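Hello again,

I reread your note about wanting to compare the complex against the isolated chains. To keep things tidy I'm splitting this into two emails, and this first one only covers the full assembly. Below are the input lines as submitted, including protein chains and any nucleic acid or small-molecule components. They are followed by the predicted structure of everything together. The single-chain runs will come separately.
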Amino acid sequence: MLSTALYVTLALVVMALLMNLYRLTIGPSLPDRVLALDTMYVNSIALIVLLGLWLNSKTYFESALLIAMLGFISTVAVCKYILRGDIIE
Amino acid sequence: MSVIVEALISLLLIAGGIFVFIGSLGMAHLRDFYMRLHGPTKATTLGIGCMLIASMLYFWSVDGKPDIQELLITLFLFITAPVSAHLLAKSGLHLRLKHADKTQGKPVELRPEEVGDKPVPHPDKGHG
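Full-complex prediction:
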């Protein structure tokens, strides 16, 4: 039961990543692309969690935490650049 | 692992996958940046929370002791998602992106001193 659920969830997350890639490619404006990248790192955290469930190891959760922090900081930096033309004033 | 715990973990995993999929579907499909902002900021955050709780339950039932690492990731994502959504909405309003007719709260409804092209001078001029 668990392995079937794992495969279904993996398929759903991969399809979500493909749709994020579509929006990142055609996105008509800059905030659309930033939003697509933001969603892509959240979905990559989901993939890492599913990989940890699949391999039955907890090694990869530190990398998930690292991706969460760095993704948030990069989104905030790009938004500050769009808003103010500068990141650290 | 008992059958009930396994069913609960499977249910949380599939619910998380469906929420993540719906969030990305909304972002790929809707017409307007301000509409597209809704999908990833709400549905994707809930989905990733479901998946992380499922992972925490799985390792709790395998190892026999709870682990706080996944809860930390969940908490961090739940704190940071509204902040990044707020900043993205502000940058969309700043760039004056096109919006559909149904979208409420247009940039022209802001206060007049926040609309102009020129930057508003700061009232505190005490730099000299």
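For quick reference: Chain B touches chain A through 51 residues (CB under 8 Å).

B.
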